[in-house]
Write a structure and sequence with these properties.
With 435 residues, this protein is mainly alpha-helical. It has a single domain (5-394), classed as Hydantoin permease (Orthogonal Bundle), CATH 1.10.4160.10. It has 16 helices and no strands. It has helices spanning 5-11, 14-22, 25-38, 43-67, 71-78, 82-109, 120-167, 191-199, 209-222, 228-257, 261-264, 269-284, 289-322, 333-359, 364-390, 403-429. The longest helix is centred in the N-terminal third of the chain and has 48 residues, at 120-167. The protein is globular, with a radius of gyration of 21 Å. The protein starts with a helix and ends in a 6-residue tail after the last helix. The mean pLDDT is 87.
């Protein structure tokens, strides 16, 4: 199967949308803060995490390309408990993730004069309702077009900000050290931050299901069925963009904020949003506000939009599969109607979560990093489900992973389990804490 320009154009979409989902909280907040607190020391961990998650996140794309089934159909056929597990976690994480990313998106809007006077909660409602209307009215086609525009926009703007910094004289005094920093990130006191950083870097492993479902909608939209090479080219392009932008945000954080990482995330949500932009503009210049604000907003709005589509899409598909009604690939009117219902339910659930968080005095950092931590702790479960399904008799031997990718899978699984156990031991049993 060869790659052709026409085939790439018609199949390009699910991987780019996945990039839009990933380039949000993990990049704008945790990657930037990683650079602000520890300089370039965590670049190696970020690259390692992206490498070890790659084979698991690729599973959905490859499985659908070679079998014609969604990965959720594969879960159902492989083990009867896989779908209920995925459903349970998605119902919980979906609500809090959508709430978290929509709130951060709203906070970034406060940097625009016309929105500065509005309360963040009101802006969050506006972001959620706008995203919901786009998906309800435009469906997958709108998601595909808007995601591509936002991903291109944020990549270009972030690259421009990075290049502007490289040309400034303020970098002459910066020590680019990939090995150590002051303070050092390699302590148990920083473990919770490292877990959160890895949780959404580049995204939760449960995202492996999303491109699998989007491939059916893309095929319906383009009237073209992508072959394995075309589907994986799309995925790899999106993945490359997520890795590159993660490094750009780490660099921006290190160049503009090193030594002020804790200050950046302190205070109220509005303080975080304004402080983030202020630190960038102080290093680059006031004109940089018109680059950083749209780039940051594009990153978070693309994440909000894709999450508000993907979580309901996954849950709707699982409902159809568990009830033996349909395949859950939105190929019929009843499937599309069910998806729209779940989108509306997620909008209301996210609003309730935001209200609860506000009444409980939860800060933006706690809200987002809590969602990231939950994603990391559930990652080994989804990693195993993905690997087990691809290695099953559902997939021909020639399409299963070879020795290199299999080794990468096992290494990644050990990595995820090891850090999860360490985090649990430290958080609940006091491992490494001084008495």
């Amino acid at each position: 199967m060869t790659l052709t320009r026409k085939g790439i154009q018609k199949s390009l979409g699910p991987g780019i949308i996945l990039a839009g989902a990933c380039i949000g909280g993990s990049h704008l907040m945790s990657s930037t803060q990683a650079g602000a607190k520890f300089g370039f020391t965590l670049v190696g961990l970020i690259l390692l995490t992206n490498l070890l998650k790659y084979p698991f996140l690729l599973v959905g794309t490859r499985f659908t390309a070679v079998t014609g089934l969604s990965l959720l159909e594969g879960f159902k056929a492989r083990n009867p408990i896989y779908l209920p597990i995925y459903l349970t976690v998605s119902l919980v994480t979906g609500t809090f993730t959508i709430a978290a990313v929509s709130f951060v998106t709203a906070l970034l809007l406060t940097n625009i004069p016309i929105f500065a006077a509005f309360p963040p909660m009101d802006l969050s409602i506006g972001v959620l309702v706008s995203s919901g209307l786009i998906l309800l009215l435009g469906q997958y086609k709108a998601l595909d077009r808007i995601s591509k525009i936002l991903v291109v926009l944020l990549t270009l703007l972030t690259s421009f900000a990075f290049l502007s910094l490289l040309r400034s004289n303020s970098l002459d005094f910066i020590d680019i050290n990939l090995i150590k920093s002051t303070p050092s990130p390699w302590t148990l006191t920083n473990l919770s931050f490292l877990i959160a950083l890895m949780g959404w870097m580049p995204g939760p492993i449960e995202l492996c299901v999303w491109p699998s479902l989007w491939m059916f909608s893309r095929s319906k939209d383009s009237k073209y069925i992508a072959n394995t090479n075309e589907a994986e080219f799309d995925f790899n392009l999106g993945y490359l963009i997520t890795v590159a932008t993660a490094l750009l945000f780490v660099s921006l954080g290190a160049f503009t904020m090193y030594g002020s990482g804790n200050v950046m995330m302190s205070g109220s949500g509005v303080y975080f949003a304004k402080n983030l932009i202020r630190l960038y503009t102080e290093a680059i210049g006031d004109w940089a506000k018109w680059i950083i604000v749209p780039a940051s907003f594009a990153a978070m709005f693309s994440t909000t939009l894709t999450c508000l589509d993907a979580y309901p899409r996954s849950i709707s598909a699982i409902q159809g599969l568990l009830q033996n009604k349909d395949r859950g690939i939105t190929s019929s009117g009843s499937e599309n109607k069910r998806l729209r219902v779940w989108i509306v339910l997620h909008v209301f659930a996210a609003l309730i979560a935001l209200l609860i968080a506000r009444s409980g005095g939860v800060t933006v950092a706690q809200f987002v990093f809590g969602a990231m931590t939950g994603s990391f702790l559930t990652a080994p479960i989804f990693a195993w489900m993905a690997m087990d399904t691809l290695n099953s008799s559902l997939v021909e031997k020639k399409h299963q992973y070879g020795p290199l990718m299999q080794s990468l899978c096992w290494t990644g699984l050990i990595f995820l389990v090891g850090f999860s156990v360490l985090f649990i031991a430290n958080s609940f049993f006091g491992l490494g804490n001084s008495s």
